[in-house]
Design goal:
By secondary structure, the chain is an all-alpha fold. It has 6 helices and no strands. The model has no long low-confidence stretch (mean pLDDT 85).
């Protein structure tokens, strides 16, 4: 799995865990929901690498460490 897809999956998992919608995350980030949706799309055509500052802003908005989105899937499931 590509790193960008693993990061997307981690973000989706954290949104689900915290019961936060993409709309709410977009509000917290100060971006349009459509923009966030396009960045988090799981479509294989939407392979977009995340910049480090984007990952940091998302982590801050969710109140989690950046490392959460960079950890292997097996660690997240534990």
């Amino acid at each position: 799995m590509a790193l960008s897809q693993a990061i997307k999956d981690s973000i989706h998992a954290e949104l689900t865990r915290q019961q936060i919608s993409q709309r709410e995350l977009a509000r917290r980030l100060g971006v349009r929901q459509e923009y966030l949706w396009s960045r988090l799309s799981r479509s294989e055509k939407a392979v977009v690498e995340f910049r480090p500052d984007e990952i940091e802003r998302i982590a801050d908005a969710l109140g989690v460490p950046v490392a959460l989105f960079l950890a292997p899937a097996e660690e997240r499931a534990a």
